[in-house]
Amino acid sequence: MVKTLSGVPEGSFVRSSSLPGSPVAARKALSRAAAEGTLLFIRPGLYYRGAMTRYGMATPSIQEVVTAVLGREGVGPAGFSAARAWGVTTQVPATFHVATLKPVAAIAGVRQVSRRNLARMRLNQKEIALLELLRAPEVYVETGWASLVAAVSDAQRAGLVNWESLLEVGATESNVKVKLGLELMSEGLNTLAA
Q1: How far apart are CA 100 and CA 121, in angstroms?
Q2: Residues 40 and 87 in one domain
Q3: Does one domain contain both 84 and 144?
Q4: Shared-domain flag, residues 85 and 148
Q5: Whole-angstrom Cα distance, residue 163 to residue 192?
Q6: Does the N-terminal or the C-terminal CB of the chain have fewer CB atoms within 10 Å?
Q7: Residue span of the structural domain in which 110 resides
Q8: Would you call 42 helix, strand, or coil by DSSP?
Q9: CA atoms of 151 and 172, how far apart (whole Å)
Q10: 122-140 pLDDT, tens per residue?
Q11: 174 falls in which pLDDT band (50, 70, 90)?
């Protein structure tokens, strides 16, 4: 078990369920490694091995923790975190807001928002962030609608968003503002392309 833990590369997470041996032995080994300072406790069953600095072990970013805990499918930034992901606000939220299909036990520094649209599993985090922004663009987009349209156009050209997938999933959203926002965004993108 000690060999397994010493081979964990810097910047990676370790789950007790992924270690060989009994669950009790895995938990004890991880707990011991955290007490020695070679791993950082994140939450029950999840630890992190960061780079050692003269001030101690580097911690993972909140986005890395969210991805490790919630996964990537159907998960994406919400609220001002979504606005930051799209670069349309200067606001820095005190907590990271995330939209998820299946909320889990509280994550320190994270506010989870539950969404029930399983079609979101086909979208990446950037696309989910856009759907979340369209719920209340007047609140989150401080640089104006035109800047959001331009950001989406740039992301589309860079291959970061698939507009057709967004429209398909957007049609299944229950929030009317999201559907209307996608229609307005389509018009804006067509105007930019012309």
Answers
A1: 10
A2: no
A3: yes
A4: yes
A5: 14
A6: C
A7: 62-193
A8: strand
A9: 24
A10: 999 999 999 999 999 999 9
A11: very high
Residues 37 and 8 in one domain: yes
Burial of 86 (0-12, 13-18, 19+ CB in 10 A): buried
Q: Which residue from 133, 115, 134, 135 is spatially nearest to 75, judged by alpha carbons?
A: 115
**Is residue 175 domain-shared with residue 91, that is, in the same domain?**
yes
Considering the entire predicted model, what is its pTM?
0.87
Q: Are the CB atoms for 140 and 133 separated by under 8 Å? A: yes
Is there a single domain that holds both residue 67 and residue 122?
yes
Q: Which residues contact 73 (CB under 8 A, 6 or more apart)?
A: 101, 121
CB atoms within 10 A of CB 111: 15
**78 token code pair:** 């919400």
Query: Whose CA is closest to 173, among 160, 161, 182, 184?
Result: 182
The number of distinct structural domains making up the chain is 2
